Write a sequence for this structure.
């Protein structure tokens, strides 16, 4: 469960947002800081700017 980056509503990990119809297939995780759906390949959260790469893969 996370937040759709397009409409801001709570969604499960799914291909298409049930609220706004946005393509969510590229998002496979959620930001541990603000909860928005993001790609696991992301370096920083586009919503809150947190360093998620450091959080996931940092020592
Ligand atoms: Zn949406
Ligand atoms: Zn965030």
């Amino acid at each position: 469960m996370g937040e759709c980056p397009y409409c801001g509503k709570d969604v499960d990990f799914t291909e298409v947002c049930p609220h706004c119809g946005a393509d969510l297939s590229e998002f496979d995780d959620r930001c541990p800081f603000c909860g928005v759906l993001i790609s696991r390949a992301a370096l920083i959260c586009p919503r809150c700017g947190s360093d998620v790469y450091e959080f996931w893969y940092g020592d």
Summary: The mean pLDDT is 95. Residues 1-59 form one domain. The chain has one domain: 1-59.
